Predict the structure.
Amino acid sequence: MQTHDFIGGGVPATPDASGCGVQPLFVLVNTSHPGNVGAAARAVKTMGFTQLALVAPRYADVLQQPEALAFASGADDVLAATRICPDLMAAAGDCGVLVALSSRVRDFGPPLRSPEWLPELARTAASQGRRVGFVFGSERYGLDNDTVYRCDALLSLPAYSKYASLNLAQAVQIVAWEWRKAIGVFSLPPGPSVEKAATQAEVQGLLDHAERALVTLGYLDPHAPKKLLPRLARLATRAQLTQQEVHILRGICKAGLERLGGARTQLTGEQQTDPPGHDAATCAPD
């Protein structure tokens, strides 16, 4: 199935949100802080989703609160389209699957799942044409048991066991990210073109060039090289050099050899032009 960057059941979402039937729904229950509502709207939009609903938020005008508008930061359209409902069924009654988010496991309730289960849920929901809703609890108390019991699964994010309390908007962001991956709409922007790898012959040419430079520098004794050359060969193999990198390194070797050769020529020329009886070693500089 062809996918698009903006998720709408395989087709671009339209401005009037006519694709909401295939969009996942993110439900915030008893939310206290307007900033979290705005941040959740932003989290939803950054992953290409549009549908957010609130169940009995603390503030009836939460969508107009300055903090909510500020934290939405570019997701004003998602925030403005957010529905406020009195209960879970009014908010998510059109969902075929409800997934509760909680780090607290109940003795009685829906099966506990991890994010690795989401691709399976995505396939099943798509094949059955069922809309998926993710239900998040309040900032202070999380989800109550009655709400969890109404859901089909309990999703737990594997946070640090000694401090597993995620900020509400952070939890929404993680779930939206995981769901985006699960439904297969994930791509990276095109990176730089891959450079052509150096051939074995080109790498060997570099090693031969480096050997000449090292001998000329006096760093390598050609009569007792020991393991230096094999180690350099291993280094080149691990580096997986490109042709351009080989050219750069050979250019360095060439420049070093030319500089050494020029210095020797200059020194030889100076010695040849010294007058008879002149001792260059003892001559004081001008």
About this structure: Confidence is low (pLDDT under 50) at residues 1-21, 272-286.
